[in-house]
Structure formats: structure tokens, C-alpha cells
């Protein structure tokens, strides 16, 4: 535990800084090389799906009699779309099964909205020269990259313990009709681990009634089944909420098996209203003759038994939970009785969001790298890489072993403390 820095004299701070610097130099001598930058499944997690290899056994006929080795089928296989419908919580008729990446589907959907429109002639976002997108922060850097790539201005919106600050979201939409989109990671959000409250989901479903024309919520439900325990909070069904509000066209839902089976060889899903699907498929038909149906069929058969998806995710949780518990133990031991850091005790997903004192995230990341621990760059969880407080750091503990996570967190907590003491000495 670290004492209250405000209660220490300059001499005491200098002595503490000297001791921490010596500890840091000792850690550097260990020659660690650990990477906590991205939320990827570990090798042990990927091994859970090795039965996918050879699963088809030469039988390439889908349930509908389609030879999956051939061209066609823009919607994807029916039995695979049923898996997507389970993940998204919506009718299979309104689910499209695509390739391996939901990020690709999100980019394609936003590109179609921007260049072609999702509501017929005249609905393309680019016709509004000031097209903007609301981005809850801290948030997912790859969402921000899509907006930046398309030239869509990003407006940060604070995250709360219940999801995006809906007062701020609604006010922005009421005042600015050029806001065309809102990004959401609704269950175990990236990186805070927040699960949107029922009230937040209801209010998001009503946004189509107050936003300007052609507004869409990009509902990236990447971690819908990625709970670490059976008591983790559930997420309200946004599709049902939109039907009640009469705003089915305002939300596009996304999910994938990327962190369920093979991260680089999964299946991505898009769920949307009939009108949205009509315009999306019209554009996709110029891009592709159809997705990888062989991979879709083996995924459908891998999860063909009732309850197989839930049982599979319990195996993932058994591997992930000790890693997250290790991170949380170090954070509690180091900062549980002081104000050097803030974090959420997450119950699912792939990340823990940590806030240093203002002005210390970049320095903490720099110090950690010097001791052999690579972290996501400070600022990555904000649009344009600019965290105005320079405080947020995303911790991704899934890939290293439990013992390696333990080593990495020894470095991390020391670096946070050392940076904090050095800052205190300057004031």
C-alpha cells in the first residue's frame, strides 16, 4: 500500500521516490517481455475450438441442400444465421452472416451509410458536409478509426456506470441534426466493462425519434456471451426496445464468433431492419458473390446442440477469470486505500479500464515499456488519440499466462506509483 502522498513532506516524497526508482531498476533487470496491448484470446482459449478442423468430414451440404463450396448466398447459411440470431437476440430473418470480422461489417455498413445511404435516394451521409458521430469515451479505438477513415467528425460523450451519458447524448442530438451515428459496445463495453442499464437501452431505442434524418446506432455487441461468472448482469434486448418505440430502422447490431472460436477464422453477423438490410445487401452485392459458407457450416455444426454455446463460453470464462482476478488483486493491493488510481471490477469482456491521476497515463505507459511491459498507447481509448486528462489506460490480460499477468501487474502498479510520486514532487 502507498501512503497518502498529500500527507508526505518533500523529504519523505524524495525518499519514497528513491526507493521506488531502485525497485524499478531491479525490475528492469528481470528482462521481462510481456504484451497487454490487445484483447486477443490466449492459445488455451483457441484450443477450445480445435474440433472445428475436419468437422465437416467431406459433407458440404447445408441443411437447405446448398453446396457450401460454391458461390452465392449473400445472406449466409440459414443454420449459421440462427447462431447469429442467438447472439444478437433478434429473428433469424433479419440477420446476415458474413466473413470472419464484425469490424469489416461495421466498416462496410458505415461506408454504405456515408456513401450510398441506408434509407434510399438522398440519404447518404456525405450529402451533409458536417456529418458527425457520437463516441462514448473511453471507447474502442477501431470504432474511432472507421470514423476518421471516412472523414466523420467524432464528438466524445462521457461513459457512466450505466452506459453513455444519455442526457448528453439526447441534448447533442436535439441541438445538432448533422450527428448521424452513435457507437455502442453495450455489454462489457470496451474498455470499461460496463453493462448498459435497462433504462439506457430504452433511451437509446428512442433516439431515432429525436435525432436528425438517417441517424443510426452502431450496436457492437462483441461481448454478449463473454461473462466471467453466472451472476454477471444481463443486457436488455435493444431490438425489442426499438420495436416498442417504432424505431427499428435506427439501430444496426453486430456480433461475431471472433472471441468464441478462432479469432482470425470466425463468423461475423449483422442484424438490422428489413429496410436497412435491403440497402446494405444492394451495396454488398457489388462487392462480393457471397461469404465463406464452408466456415459458416462448420460453425453451425460446432454449436448445433442446445446449450453448446453456453457450455463453450463457460470454458472460456474458466481460463479468463484467473487472469482478471490477478489484475484486480494487484490494483486493490496497490491502490485500494489511496487515490492513485480508479478502475472497474468487471464481470466480463476482455479489458479493465484504469485511470491514473490526470497527466500520468503516457508516463506510466512509458515507464512500463522500459521495464518490459507493453501497454495500449495512452489516448487510444479517445477519438484522435487525445485523452484530455491523459489518465486512461486499457489493460488487456487475456493473452499472457496467469503468472505473466502477475509479473506484468507488479510492473504496472510500481510504474503508476512512481509516476504519481514524481508528479507530487513537482507540485
Automatic annotation (TrEMBL):
It comes from the Bacteria. The keyword GTP-binding does not apply. Gene3D superfamilies: Aspartate Aminotransferase, domain 1, Type I PLP-dependent aspartate aminotransferase-like (Major domain). Transmembrane segments: none annotated. It holds the Pfam family Asp_aminotransf. Keywords: Aminotransferase, Transferase. One of its GO terms (molecular function) is L-aspartate:2-oxoglutarate aminotransferase activity. The keyword Transferase applies. InterPro entries: AspAT_Ic, PyrdxlP-dep_Trfase, PyrdxlP-dep_Trfase_major, PyrdxlP-dep_Trfase_small. This is Aminotransferase.
